[in-house]
Write a structure and sequence with these properties.
GO terms for molecular function: DNA binding. Keywords: DNA damage, DNA recombination, DNA repair, DNA replication, DNA-binding. Plays an important role in DNA replication, recombination and repair. Binds to ssDNA and to an array of partner proteins to recruit them to their sites of action during DNA metabolism. The protein is mainly β. The chain has a domain of 98 residues: Nucleic acid-binding proteins (OB fold (Dihydrolipoamide Acetyltransferase, E2P), Beta Barrel), CATH 2.40.50.140. It has 1 helix and 7 strands. The protein has a 5-stranded mixed β-barrel. The radius of gyration is 20 Å and the shape is globular.
């Protein structure tokens, strides 16, 4: 059996960071995801899901430092069932996500994004936000600056008007 969830959405509240007695960092937050579809009568409908999630370790500290309510993120993890007894003695449960990979999707200036480069002159560039994998931290040497060999002309890219809802993934 395989339990994997991938969600893209916006944080519903600021990240709540705490440390366990062992020193392990734990962050909790919530994400809102949207789905737009046409119902049987052809009317455009929106469906919003609110899901809590948990992030552990260094990723929890990074999330607390750079994310805030409204930040756009991609979460990859596993679905977890939480069960408890409330103060009135009722058994309660809910599903949440235990995050294994976290990627910040905001661009610079949007919610004070982290790690993005400005767009190339006259064009568009994808955000270069770091991805945080909790299972396998990356340890790489810093990149050495490259010396340009010759001046390259700036290529003008056409403007493309794409609605986020038109993207199939």
């Amino acid at each position: 059996m395989f339990n994997k969830v991938i969600l893209i959405g916006n944080l519903t509240r600021d990240v709540e960071l705490r440390y366990l007695p062992s020193g392990q960092a734990l962050a909790k937050c919530g994400i809102a995801t949207n789905r737009r579809f046409k119902d049987a009568s052809g009317m455009q409908k929106d469906e919003t899901m609110f899901i809590d999630f948990t992030v552990w370790g260094r990723s929890a500290e990074v999330a607390n430092q750079y994310l805030k309510k409204g930040s756009r993120v991609l979460l990859e993890g596993r679905l977890t069932l939480e069960q408890w007894t409330d103060q009135s003695g009722q058994k309660r449960s809910r599903h949440s996500i235990t995050v294994e990979n976290l990627k910040m999707l905001d661009r610079k200036g949007d919610n004070e994004g982290y790690g993005q480069q400005p767009p190339a002159q006259g064009g568009y560039s994808e955000p270069t936000a770091p991805s945080y994998n909790q299972q396998q931290p990356s340890h790489s040497a810093p990149a050495q600056p490259q010396q340009p060999t010759q001046q390259q002309p700036v290529q003008e890219l056409p403007s493309i008007d794409i609605d986020e809802d038109d993207i199939p993934f």
